[in-house]
Design goal:
The protein is 38% helix and 15% strand. It is of the alpha/beta class and 343 residues long. A six-stranded parallel beta sheet has the order 2-1-3-4-5-6, sandwiched between helices. A five-stranded parallel beta sheet has the order 8-7-9-10-11.
């Protein structure tokens, strides 16, 4: 039995000025998943509101007004659950005011990595005023960093949305696709993955058609250009900014796997304990990554089998409807309506 329907106030950054290019966002998928499950959901975009309310659209001048507008919105919505994402403009004082005014559950969802010290502090600060936090890193790492908060901190995966991850390139022979291997990324802080991308470019067999968007003079791709790049690639490498954190991955892994690309990811993140056999392909070293990329480039039936199993697992067990319902059920302390694989 699913959770009773809630009146949910979802607070985050809608990125309205990206004009449709951010549909792969985990927060967009959460919004859509909550609605798919029948909940009433109002999305309040903190940074967009600050810009709308500020003189000359200068967002920093609208922060105080955005907090006021959130309080006004909550009074109109009368939420039973408030979910706060990366809404840094919203102060802890405002959250405390919402808590007192509405006597509802308030939770924080955080999709940033825990190897960034400022993010760890952000979560600690939010837990001074929120009931619990959902974090995209796995529970083993969460409990190492927040041992005193173990009962209030939970893992949430990166989900797929069947209307967003809508391709299945596992069903297409690699020879009919534009490229064998893809990597997309542009974050440069707290990472050396640019060196890894360069190494792959230098060391992979010349027969491997490899594109890295955001590197080597190629612009990063967003929106429909990102969709097109994934839909024309057989395999993708999931390079995180840092490796070795339990069940931690960039949302890229769901975007690749959910569209039927074969996904290579580092074994140190322990996804072997979550995903079925013959789905994701793991590597321990760059040489091993190179060898496995070249093997699957030459063995297309194996590539298709692993990629298809990965895609099926994502869409069956990590879709945004299950993801959203898990967050609701865990937040309001209800028995689970599904055996969530990550719980």
């Amino acid at each position: 039995m699913s959770a009773p329907l809630q009146r949910i106030l979802l607070v985050g950054f809608a990125q309205l000025r990206r004009y449709g290019k951010t549909r792969v966002s985990w927060f967009v998928k959460l919004h859509r998943g909550l609605i798919r499950n029948g909940h009433y959901v109002h999305f309040f975009s903190d940074r967009d509101t600050a810009a709308f309310e500020a003189p000359f659209g200068l967002r920093d001048l609208g922060k105080k007004k955005a907090n006021k507008r959130l309080i006004e919105t909550a009074a109109e919505i009368e939420p039973t659950l408030i979910i706060i994402g990366h809404a840094d403009i919203i102060t802890d004082e405002t959250i405390h005011t919402l808590k007192e005014a509405h006597s509802c559950i308030i939770v924080h969802c955080n999709n940033d990595p825990l190897f960034i010290p400022s993010n760890v502090q952000r979560i600690r600060d939010r837990l001074n005023v929120c009931d619990s936090a959902f974090i995209s890193t796995g529970k083993l790492t969460i409990d190492e960093i927040f041992p005193e908060l173990s009962e209030r901190t939970f893992h949430m995966p990166n989900p797929v949305d069947p209307a967003i991850e809508r391709f299945d390139v596992s069903a297409t022979p690699a020879g009919q696709l534009q490229r064998d291997l893809i990597f997309c990324g542009n974050a440069t802080k707290f990472t050396k993955r640019g060196e890894t991308v360069q190494w792959l470019k230098d060391e992979l067999s010349s027969s491997i058609r490899f594109d890295a968007f955001g590197f080597f003079g190629k612009e990063p791709v967003w929106g429909k250009d990102y969709d097109s790049a994934l839909a024309s690639s057989a395999m993708g490498v999931n390079l995180n900014r840092d490796e070795g954190h339990h069940w931690y991955s960039s949302a890229r892994m769901a975007q690749l796997g959910g569209n039927g690309l074969l996904v290579f990811t580092h074994s140190d993140n322990q996804f072997q304990t979550l995903f079925p056999d013959r789905s994701l392909v793991y590597y321990d070293s760059l040489n091993q990554l190179k060898e496995r990329v070249e093997y699957f480039a030459e063995n297309d039936a194996d590539r298709a089998e692993h990629a298809s199993r990965t895609r099926q697992f994502f869409h069956d067990e990590m879709n945004n409807a299950l993801y959203a319902q898990y967050i609701v059920e865990q937040s309001i302390s209800l028995p689970f309506s599904h055996s969530y694989v990550w719980a």
